[in-house]
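Narrative of accomplishments. A recurring question from our advisory board has been how the design workflow behaves on a single, concrete structure rather than in aggregate. To address it, we present the structure tokens for one chain from the evaluation set, followed by the sequence designed for it. No filtering or post-editing was applied between the two.
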């Protein structure tokens, strides 16, 4: 498997990329202009909703995305509930990673899989734990962001031609629950990297366990290929680490206000263009997007100390995720 090989194109992606970019940039821009930028950063996290079911028809996404948004809100609510207790937050990282992976793989949700449920949980615990925003205000802002992104994703339904496309049954869109051999192996890998990542995080810094685990989950991905699992992991690890380096370069500027809104919108646009064709390349842009959004929400953008910590967390998690690929059994002669 070549690092430079792209999956076949599945049609034009720019309309979906534009919707995703608006979903993350508009809340930041609007809230910045009315003097409530922190709420804009939180609402922008709701744009992670539209990263799912990107290849489905709009009418089908209208059924899937509310479930994704609900999952993100539940993850955030759990993070808010345990915020302030590093040990309990770390235990919650394992629980959220395992539960979201079981559901994502069991119902074949597709990319980006359990990744953003883990990151939203950790981000919520981190921001609310800092004591700068009331928990209910945080959840309300995130819910508003999820709803706004959902409405933007459904905007093509204003066109009669799009509305004429017949909807598929939800059980066809999200078949399951069922875990085949590959799904069980992916779930096992997520659980292992979550446990090991949390243990490593407790040594490195308990407040950062969610990003170590998130980096590992990102590297694992959603597709299990027995012969290529380790190689895929290495590719994704490289994408994650390069993305962390890009974050360092961007954080040194540092972007703020409307410029940050435009930058995050551009990153989101690029992610949607490439995520279905080259997940490793998408991680080059997903990583700085999440780190910039996290830094904006916590007021740490531009801090070299925090940037260095994120690089360490990313490398530790990425190596852990790639190494878990060796758990896949060797392919039989027939499979080779």
């Amino acid at each position: 498997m070549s690092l430079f090989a792209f999956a076949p194109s599945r049609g034009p992606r720019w309309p979906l990329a534009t919707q995703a970019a608006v979903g993350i940039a508009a809340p930041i821009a609007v809230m910045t202009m009315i003097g409530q930028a922190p709420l804009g950063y939180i609402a922008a996290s709701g744009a992670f909703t539209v990263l799912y079911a990107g290849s489905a028809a709009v009418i089908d996404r209208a059924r899937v995305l509310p479930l994704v948004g609900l999952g993100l809100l539940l993850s955030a609510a759990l993070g808010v509930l345990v915020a302030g207790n590093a040990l309990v937050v770390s235990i919650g990282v394992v629980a959220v990673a395992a539960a979201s992976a079981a559901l994502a793989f069991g119902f074949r949700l597709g990319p980006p899989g359990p990744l953003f449920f883990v990151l939203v949980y950790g981000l919520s615990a981190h921001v609310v734990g800092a004591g700068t925003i009331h928990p209910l205000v945080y959840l309300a802002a995130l819910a508003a962001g999820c709803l706004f992104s959902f409405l933007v994703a459904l905007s093509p339904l204003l066109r009669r031609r799009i509305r004429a496309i017949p909807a598929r049954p939800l059980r066809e869109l999200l078949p399951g629950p069922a875990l085949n051999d590959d799904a069980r192996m992916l779930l096992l890998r997520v659980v292992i990297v979550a446990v090991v990542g949390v243990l490593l995080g407790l040594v490195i810094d308990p407040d950062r366990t969610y990003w170590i685990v998130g980096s590992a989950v990102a590297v694992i991905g959603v597709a299990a290929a027995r012969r290529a699992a380790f190689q895929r992991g290495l590719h994704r690890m490289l994408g994650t680490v390069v993305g962390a380096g890009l974050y360092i370069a961007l954080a040194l500027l540092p972007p703020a206000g409307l410029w940050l809104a435009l930058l995050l919108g551009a990153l989101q646009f690029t992610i949607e263009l490439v995520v279905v064709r080259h997940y490793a390349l998408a991680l080059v842009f997903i990583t700085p997007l999440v780190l910039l959004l996290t830094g904006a929400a916590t007021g740490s953008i531009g801090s070299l100390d925090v940037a260095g910590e994120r690089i360490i967390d990313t490398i530790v998690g990425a190596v852990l995720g790639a190494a878990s690929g060796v758990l896949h059994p060797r392919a039989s002669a027939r499979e080779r």
